[in-house]
């Protein structure tokens, strides 16, 4: 499926690819006939409850600790407006467009399941925002990851009402009402339960989880590439990656990482140059070289677990109260973000550890006691030139920050809503720090690739493997080879872009075929 192909939204689960296409590539959405039928059936039941004299939470009562008050029918439209306005209380920096689009899509999917009681016209209005590329301005702080991502989703609901602030398709910030008018969309007058249905979900933290899984899947392949380049340029051995040794410990991710490294290093002249035991007296490589598949493999298995959790969440309809298939409307606790929060924290841990190992490999290149014949700091004229000395400092600073970000958010809880909501997940906070960790890992791996490429060049006339040589060639299109010191920051950023957009992985795969 092309990145911009329409994504159909119905009661059935979305795929990871659907979320990525809408969030990152701006793909349009379409509510299916099944979705509209499910939405209409659930709405009929909500309308019946709204007319009943018996109080129903979220339909004819207040919210949270104020749920004991029965709301007069004449005040219920005001109730919904007041809910959204008061909950749109975010603060801090603006959240990225791709995160907000993911959040909107995932909320739309829950509406499409027919378990929220939203009106069809309101669901269509949400789809209209996505298709018009109108992105509500959502702020960094405001969600506790329980009762849903309340403040972030409320800012989206506020836009549906024609209030608040948005970014249009050109990236300009302006009033929601004006953006809706320019797109030919009408503001929504929310009816009974609709305000609650629009804000009571784990969509923000789930969207960020799916985006992180997409990034980490690519970055762990990059970690195998950077590790292989380091093993090669540091005159390490690839014998430890042999399948018969990996089979002694049948961790699935480890086997995949080791297999990738073997394929990346295939036909390396540098590796062949020191296979003769009479020419190479080293018995074992350092852990950062020898154990690279064990660490990157364990990270892969953690990502796989996170993907399972995200898949289960994509099959969910998170709202409270929920409209059941038999017409009952029942309160529940499915809005609690614990399942998503835990794996968001797990991924920050593994990102920090993969980055930590990468930084240790880079450091080995710079030390003449450990780099096996390369110049100090890979400098052209050590003493006059500093080479990659401070690039490693940059790595170290990022890794240190990532270790702090690896402290779990999900073990914290601050009670809210007059102790009615007395345990919360902090999943949104876990997701926000994971995004910073993913960016950090991208930068750390880029510096290792940049440093290893310089070291491979310095091994000439020995010939690198075709795959690693292809990476060096790709870098040399924008980054010069070894030589006197020059402005290093732009070179680092150039390689960061090649890592982030997948160019490093695709370059290797053009030689090896798809990596695992």
UniProtKB/TrEMBL annotation:
Looking up InterPro entries in the UniProt record yields: Aromatic_Lyase, Fumarase/histidase_N, HutH, L-Aspartase-like, Phe/His_NH3-lyase_AS
Could you say which EC number(s) this protein's record lists?
4.3.1.3
Record PROSITE patterns: PAL_HISTIDASE
Q: Pathway involvement?
A: Amino-acid degradation; L-histidine degradation into L-glutamate; N-formimidoyl-L-glutamate from L-histidine: step 1/3
Judged by the first EC level, this protein's enzyme class is lyase
**What family does the Swiss-Prot or TrEMBL record give for this protein?**
Belongs to the PAL/histidase family.
Q: Which NCBIfam families match?
A: hutH, PRK09367.1
Q: What is this protein called?
A: Histidine ammonia-lyase
Q: Which organism is it from?
A: Nonomuraea recticatena
Gene symbol here is: hutH
């Amino acid at each position: 499926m092309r990145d911009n192909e329409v994504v159909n939204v119905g009661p059935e689960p979305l795929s990871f690819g659907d979320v990525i296409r809408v969030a990152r590539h701006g793909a349009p959405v379409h509510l299916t006939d099944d979705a509209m039928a499910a939405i209409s059936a659930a709405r009929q039941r909500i309308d019946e409850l709204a007319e009943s004299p018996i109080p129903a939470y979220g339909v004819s009562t207040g919210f949270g600790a104020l749920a004991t008050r029965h709301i007069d029918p004449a005040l219920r439209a005001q109730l919904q407006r007041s809910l959204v306005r008061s909950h749109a209380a975010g603060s801090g920096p603006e959240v990225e467009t791709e995160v907000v689009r993911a959040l909107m899509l995932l909320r739309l999917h829950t509406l499409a399941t027919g378990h929220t009681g939203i009106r069809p016209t309101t669901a269509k209005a949400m789809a209209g925002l996505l298709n018009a590329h109108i992105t509500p301005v959502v702020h960094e702080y405001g969600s506790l990851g329980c009762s849903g991502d309340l403040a972030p989703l409320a800012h989206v609901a506020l836009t549906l009402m024609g209030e608040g602030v948005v970014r249009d398709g050109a990236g300009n910030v302006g009033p929601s009402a004006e953006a809706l008018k320019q797109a030919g969309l009408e503001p929504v007058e929310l009816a009974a339960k609709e305000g609650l249905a629009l804000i009571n979900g784990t969509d923000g933290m789930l969207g960020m989880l799916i985006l992180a899984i997409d990034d980490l899947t690519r970055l762990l392949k990059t970690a195998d590439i950077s590790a292989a380049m380091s093993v090669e340029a540091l005159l390490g051995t690839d014998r430890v990656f042999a399948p018969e040794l990996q089979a002694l410990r049948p961790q699935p991710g480890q086997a995949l990482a080791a297999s990738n490294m073997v394929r990346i290093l295939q036909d390396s002249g540098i590796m062949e140059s020191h296979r003769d035991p009479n020419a190479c007296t080293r018995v074992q490589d350092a852990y950062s070289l020898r154990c690279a598949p064990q660490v990157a493999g364990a990270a892969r298995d953690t990502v796989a677990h996170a993907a399972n959790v995200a898949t289960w969440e994509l099959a969910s309809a998170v709202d409270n109260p929920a409209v059941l298939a038999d017409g009952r409307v029942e309160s529940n606790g499915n809005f609690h973000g614990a399942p998503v929060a835990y794996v968001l924290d797990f991924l920050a841990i593994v990102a920090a550890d993969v980055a930590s190992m990468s930084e240790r490999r880079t450091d080995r290149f710079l030390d003449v006691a450990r780099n096996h014949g390369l110049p100090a700091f890979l400098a052209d004229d050590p003493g006059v030139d500093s080479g990659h000395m401070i690039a490693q400092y940059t790595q170290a600073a990022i890794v240190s920050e990532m270790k702090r970000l690896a402290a779990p958010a999900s073990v914290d809880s601050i009670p809210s809503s007059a102790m009615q909501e007395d345990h919360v997940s902090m999943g949104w906070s876990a997701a926000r720090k994971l995004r910073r960790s993913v960016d950090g890992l991208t930068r750390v791996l880029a510096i290792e690739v940049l440093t290893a490429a310089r070291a491979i060049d310095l091994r000439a006339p020995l010939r690198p493997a075709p795959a690693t040589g292809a990476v060096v060639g790709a870098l040399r299109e924008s980054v010069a080879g070894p030589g006197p010191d020059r402005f290093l920051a732009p070179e680092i950023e150039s390689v960061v872009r090649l890592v982030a957009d997948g160019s490093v992985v695709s370059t290797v795969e053009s030689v090896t075929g798809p990596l695992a």
